[in-house]
Amino acid sequence: MIRKAVIPAAGLGTRFLPATKSVPKELLPIVDIPTIQYIVQEVVDAGIDTLVLITGKGKSKIVDHFDVYPELEDKLEREGKHDLVEALRKASNMIHIVSVRQGIPRGLGHAVLCAKEVIGNEPFMVLLGDDLVDAKVPCTRQMIDVYSQFHKSVVALMEVIPDDVSKFGICAGKMRSDRIMEIEQMVEKPKLQDAPSRLAIVGRYLLTPEIFEILEKTDPGKGGEIQLTDAMARLMKQQGFIGYKFEGERYDAGDKFGFLQANIAYAMKRPDIAPKLMEYMKSLVNSCKK
């Protein structure tokens, strides 16, 4: 069983300044639910019972969001706003959370390494705090099922357009089925002409605990950061690695356009919002045609 997950959430969120000057980017709402709560819900729905939040300066509000708030609950109860009380309690009762302070952010690899003492000697999930995957079967659950078949580390893959290749870790290898790849090569953010494919690693990783020892010995890479992809490439040579082309729609909520896409997509799933939103978007399209 995979019992623990890690969400690195110590980044500065500079792409959303000035909004993220005082509000963590992970708490920016998709309609009316913080981005990170959707990701935590995915973890919960996959059967994981412990979440390690890697936080930094100014990120204590993320932990607060998942804490109890009895004063506010009492006020809402007195006002008869029982639906809001239920929404608050849902967030605070989702999962057991352990908060670990990263201090100086030194890359994704360093953030994962900060979770070592809590994770211990067992496989675990890593989910990026601004990567949303809308799927009938949670992406985390899909990856756990792949791990149970191969007993090797697993990364989520998706094909990206040529212009985006240099933004991701890129993989190549032998396809064992339509969705499963035995990875033979990992390259961190290559130039398009140097990329072995256009299959990119997106924000879901299922890693065996041997990754920690490798991370401890991994030198800083591009940007002076400890790159998780570099460590995974070494783990691949030791144990093998599986790439999985997940089922579902991925939204990059850490990007302004991706954030807008996610808000529209999730709003369209809401019967209280979808009809009005549809009419509004139609009116926008019609006005652009004039």
Question: The biggest beta sheet, please?
Answer: 5 strands, mixed, barrel
Give the CATH H-level superfamily of the largest domain.
Spore Coat Polysaccharide Biosynthesis Protein SpsA, Chain A
**Beta-strand content:** 15-25%
Number of helices: 11
What is the annotated CATH architecture of the largest domain?
Answer: Alpha-Beta Complex
CATH fold topology of the largest domain: Spore Coat Polysaccharide Biosynthesis Protein SpsA, Chain A
Helix content: 25-40%
Our count of domains comes out at 2
Within the largest sheet, what's the order of strands? 8-11-9-10-12
Order of helices and strands: EEEHEHHHEHHEEHEEEEHHEEHH
Q: Which stretches of 5+ consecutive residues score pLDDT under 50? A: none
Measured distance between first and last alpha carbons? 58 Å
Shape: globular
Summarize model confidence as the mean pLDDT. 90
The count of β-strands is 13
Q: What's the CATH class of the largest domain, please?
A: Alpha Beta
C-alpha Rg (nearest Å): 20 Å
